[in-house]
Specification:
164 residues; alpha+beta; 46% strand; 41% helix
C-alpha cells in the first residue's frame, strides 16, 4: 500500500513538474516573441517592399510600411514641414494622381541596429512626368525603422529633398 501511494505521489509530482516545465517553456517563447530584434535583413526587406509598393502605386501597401505613429520631416531650400502618416499618404496619392510614368528607387546604408529599431541613411530617387515635363526628386534621409508584426516599418524620417 505504501509503495502504491509512493508511486502515485511520484507520478503526480512528475506530472506537476511537466506542467510547470510546459508553462515555463511557453512563457519563454512568449517573452522571446515580444523581445524580437531588428535585423539588417528586415531593413533590406523594408527597402525592397517600399520600392515594389511605390512603383505599383499601391497606397495600401505603402501604408503597411509606415507606422501609425510615423513623423516625416521634409526640408527643401530652407523650408521645412512635418507630416504624419495620413498627410504623407495623402501627399503621395495626390502626386501619383497628378503625374504619369512614376518611378521609385531606394538605397539604404549606414544601418545601426539597437533592439527593435534601426537607424539608417536612405536615399530615394523618384521621377515622373507632369504637364509633359520630366521631374526628378532625390531625397536623402536619416530614418528610424521599428518592428511591427515581425517586419520593419518607418517610424521617423528627417529628409532633405532636391529637385533635379
Amino acid at each position: 500500500m505504501k509503495k502504491l501511494l509512493g508511486n502515485r505521489l511520484l507520478a503526480l509530482l512528475v506530472k506537476g513538474a511537466s506542467i510547470t516545465a510546459i508553462v515555463a517553456v511557453a512563457s519563454t517563447i512568449s517573452i522571446n516573441a515580444q523581445a524580437a530584434t531588428m535585423t539588417e535583413n528586415l531593413v533590406q526587406n523594408y527597402a525592397a517592399a517600399m520600392k515594389a509598393s511605390a512603383n505599383s502605386q499601391s497606397i495600401s501597401q505603402v501604408s503597411s510600411l509606415v507606422s501609425d505613429d510615423a513623423l516625416i520631416s521634409l526640408s527643401r531650400r530652407g523650408k521645412s514641414t512635418s507630416l504624419d502618416k495620413d498627410a504623407y499618404l495623402k501627399l503621395l496619392q495626390n502626386s501619383w494622381n497628378d503625374t504619369s510614368n512614376y518611378r521609385y528607387d531606394i538605397s539604404v546604408d549606414n544601418v545601426v541596429i539597437t533592439g527593435s529599431q534601426a537607424k539608417a541613411n536612405v536615399t530615394t530617387n523618384e521621377s515622373w512626368v507632369k504637364n509633359g515635363q520630366q521631374v526628378s526628386f532625390v531625397t536623402t534621409s536619416r530614418v528610424t525603422l521599428t518592428l511591427s508584426t515581425g517586419n520593419a516599418v518607418l517610424l521617423r524620417a528627417v529628409s532633405q529633398v532636391a529637385i533635379n
